[in-house]
C-alpha cells in the first residue's frame, strides 16, 4: 500500500470513504437508503452492522463494497467468537471486516495476546477480503499505538484503524493517524474513523497518512468540497 495523494475533487475524496451506519437503532430501510446514497455519492464502501451485511450486499449489487465490524464496539470478546462473527459476515457477503482489538490487553502490554486475537480473525477472513484492525487510538499512548500496529501487521491485517467512534475518549486525531502511518510504512492501509465530520477533518487525516476514512456524514463533506452548502453532518460513526 502507498501513501495517498490528497484529493481535490468530490469523486477523488469519495473513493476514500467507508459510508458508515452503525447506530443500534438502524433499520432495514436505513441500510437500503445508506447503500443507495453511497452508490450515488461514489463512495468506496458502506460499513454496516453484521446483521445488515446480507441486506447491504444484496442492495449494493456490486456497485460498491460492503464492510462490517467485528467484536464491536468493546473488543472484549473471546477470539473464537470474533472469528465466528467474521466468518459469518464473510459468508453473508462482506468484502471487508473491521475488528476491534482487546484494548485492555494492549494497555497491559500483552501484545502477544493482541496479535493472537487479530490472527484468529485473520484466519476466518479469506485473503481476498480485507481485515482492518481498530486500535482505539485515543486510549493508547504512542508506544502502545506503535506496538499494536506492529502486532496487526505481524498477524496479517491489511489496515489499522484509529477508532470505533463509540468511546468517550475520542476518535481519530492527526497525531495518531500520522504515527500509525509512519509505523506501517505503506505496507498496511490506515483508516481514520470517529470524529471525521468536516472537509478539513477529512483532508487533514489524508494529509497525515490516512488511506481510508470512516464517515457517516459523507454527503455533507463531499458537498462542501464541491462548493455547495453542506447539510448538517451526522455525529454518529
TrEMBL record:
Catalytic activity, as annotated: 2-deoxy-D-ribose 5-phosphate = D-glyceraldehyde 3-phosphate + acetaldehyde
Location of the protein in the cell: Cytoplasm
Similarity comment: family membership: Belongs to the DeoC/FbaB aldolase family. DeoC type 1 subfamily.
Keyword Lyase: yes
GO biological process: 2-deoxyribose 1-phosphate catabolic process; carbohydrate catabolic process; deoxyribonucleotide catabolic process
Organism: Xylanimonas ulmi
EC number: 4.1.2.4
SMART domains: DeoC
Protein name, entry field: Deoxyribose-phosphate aldolase
NCBIfam families in UniProt: deoC
InterPro entries to which the protein is assigned, alphabetical: Aldolase_TIM, DeoC, DeoC/FbaB/LacD_aldolase, DeoC_typeI
Alphabetized CDD domains for the sequence: DeoC (cd00959)
